[in-house]
Specification:
By secondary structure, the protein is of the alpha+beta class. 27% of the residues lie in helices and 48% in strands. The chain has two helices and eleven strands.
Amino acid sequence: MIDANWPNFRASSAATSPQMATLAFRRGRDDCDFWAAPLASVSLVTTSKIAGLLVLCALPFFAESALADKAEWADKWEGSYDPGRALRRSDVAIGLSLGVALGGVSGYPNDVQKLNDPAYEANLGAAAGGAGALWLGGALRDWFVFGVGYASSTTTGHGYTSVARDFILHIEGFPLFAKGGVWQNLALIGDFGGGAQKITKQGLTSGDGGAMAFVAFGVLYEPLRLGDHFSGGPVVEVTEQFSASLNAMLVTGGFQIAFYGGPS
């Protein structure tokens, strides 16, 4: 509160002594702070409320504009995109490959007490055998094919026999299809999945991979055309199947024949 006698006090005492002058200065500063603080607070709150109301009022206009631009962009993109008629492959796709396998396979019994113990290791050394795969899927574009299927291999070495069985996701991509010619038949392929593999000797299990992961990468070239729907050519892959107790790395090479539902 401002003292009603404050002016008189200030006039009468300002000249009496420096101490009284200092007291007067402090009293005046306190009165200014008393009135300035509420005014500043009211100003800040009012400004914040006004700014908030302006933002809320503007939001519907920005949202409407953004939705309109998005719809216009979508209409233009969908209207202008045309993949064209399939030239080489489309619709349902089925593939079968058969070939030989070369590589190394080694493992242990699926027993924690025997893992990494040389006394229980089963090693095929330079193993050789056969491999194959069958998959069913579709050709989404001339340059992209996918499917799900089953792959297997059987290899022997050093008196051991290894048999692997896997469920796979099969992918084929033809990255240079747009160049035409032979490039339309050259694909990079990949197989991903999991399964099981065992190593046996004289009918007894020497190695067991348990649940194993499977991955393969390779190249396919299918220049042969058999009628309107069948294509074929050589395929080469590097495959690996692995778990804590067994590892197999093979190079497979063979021939793949594929059926495509279109174009006809």
